[in-house]
Amino acid sequence: MEAINFARGQLDFDGVDPDLGQHLLHLHWNRQHHSFLLTYRPAFMRDMACNGPYFSKILLNAIYFGASKFSPRLEVRRDPTDVRTSGWRFKERVKELLGPALNCSKVTTIQALLVMTNSLFALGDERSAAWLYSGIAFRMIVDLGIHVYSPDQPGKFSDEDLEIRRRVFWGAFVVDRIQSLYQGRPVTLQEADTRVPILFLDTYEELEQWFPFAYSPDNSCSYPGHPAHSVSTFAALCRLSIIMSDILSCIYAERSFDRDPSELSTMLDSLQQRLQSWECDLPSHLNFDPLNESEQTPPPHVLSLM
């Protein structure tokens, strides 16, 4: 339906040239999307044609901003000679739309804030903005009850709603841990206060063939393609993030050095064993051996587990 809706001019690109908008969306689905599965493509693209609940202009512009850094097109840059200015107008549009969006928590606003968090954090000098955006997203998650899985309320949520809520929660959980590790700050979403299973039922993206669209604008790349394995990669990252939580709370907490050295040593040994078990439990398709020349290099999001 995506191609049909595009051909009919039914997709809302928020005033952006449809060709450029579609280009940036393709970049997003090819690259940034696979890292945390924050955006759910079937619902987003469907609702983009009918202004449904899983599409919003703030999310669209957050996607534009995040995808712009992968684009070779100069029109996405404020300064054509400076790649770091890519997506500047979409960033400004997000800021314009954010004010009204703060009046009411919505899933698409959470997704937009988390997409912006990842994009800003990657710039290096926007860490404060990334931290603040993610903090708002985490509060909205709690406000909407996404941190508690509730499938036993008939009629309240559809299967699609539950799938999206699980993905949004775990995407946020992972972002929280990664940001905290890199910035040396405490996590916000405490595992003890949440109850959401690592369960993703839509596995279409798992075996979808991935090609490096983001890195081959001239289509000259000889990479033969590889199954995306997005869902299993994300599930593994979720399990790893739980161990990250304990690393942060046991080793890097403000009062951790008040503990007896022998207690800290025991904790370190336990964490090391859990990390080794996590690695051993990875399915074979996620256990890439870079020294094995006969093994095909997997997509970047799979490599990120190494």
From TrEMBL:
Family annotation (SMART domains): Fungal_trans
Name this protein carries in UniProt: Putative transcriptional regulatory protein
Pfam families with a match to the protein in the record: Fungal_trans (PF04082)
Gene Ontology terms for molecular function: DNA binding; zinc ion binding
GO biological process: DNA-templated transcription
Source organism superkingdom: Eukaryota
PANTHER family, per database record: TY1 ENHANCER ACTIVATOR (PTHR31313), ZN(2)-C6 FUNGAL-TYPE DOMAIN-CONTAINING PROTEIN (PTHR31313:SF86)
Boundaries of every Xylanolytic transcriptional activator regulatory domain copy: 130-205
CDD domains: fungal_TF_MHR
Keyword Zinc-finger: no
